[in-house]
Amino acid sequence: MNAHHLRLVSPLSPTECVARLNGSIDIEPSEISMSPSLHGTHDFIGLVKDDALRLRRRLPYSSLFQPRLEATITAHGGGAMIEGAVAMSGAGRTFVGVWWALAGFISSVTCLGAVLLTLRRRGTHWGVVPGLAAPFVVILAGGMVAMFSRRRLRAEAELITGFVRETLNAIDAP
């Protein structure tokens, strides 16, 4: 899965960064719960403490596939360095991997069955065409999902990065 890497420098100290971010988001106490967070006053929700940051955009529904920022805040010069990546959660990445493995297996078995049926009948039978086409349909669907996912990741990363930049007066690290 793709990730959008983030590396920003803020003139604020790490303690000030944590305080500003906590004041600008609604706290989501657990990454596991991923509650829809329908109620709140801020556009972003997450958890910021000490040197760790977990942040995502508020959605009116729960999504395992929603990109989120996971980063660290460390002292850098007279300010702070924020380093991390915007990516799908680990559970979401695992689900997608298992789903595509099963889809590939099922379409391969279907295609193999169609080939064996064709060889046994010694000729082409129109009933095997869907079985022969299954792997190609899975590959086409996978390509479309991948394009959509990359576009969504890029858009979410821009929103989250913009929020962090604005909140912490941060700029891209050299």
Descriptive report:
The protein is an alpha+beta fold and 174 residues long. It folds into two domains: 4-89 and 158-172, TATA-Binding Protein (2-Layer Sandwich); 91-146. Helix content is 48%, strand content 24%. A seven-stranded mixed beta sheet has the order 2-3-4-5-6-1-7, with helices on one face. The longest helix is centred in the last third of the chain and has 40 residues, at 129-168. The two termini are 26 Å apart.
How far is it from the N-terminal to the C-terminal residue, by CA? 26 Å
| Overall body shape | elongated
Helix and strand run: EHEEEEEHHE
Largest sheet: 7 strands, mixed
- The name of the CATH topology of the largest domain is TATA-Binding Protein
The figure for the number of domains is: 2
Q: Mind telling me which CATH architecture of the largest domain this is? A: 2-Layer Sandwich
Oligomer: single chain
The proportion of residues in beta strands is 15-25%
Number of helices: 3
Low-confidence stretches: none
Mean of residue pLDDT? 83
How are the SSEs ordered, and which strands pair?
Blueprint: E1 4-10, H1 14-24, E2 26-27, E3 44-49, E4 52-57, E5 68-76, E6 79-87, H2 90-121, H3 129-168, E7 171-172
Parallel strand pairs: 2-3
Antiparallel strand pairs: 1-6, 1-7, 3-4, 4-5, 5-6
Helix pairs in contact: 2-3
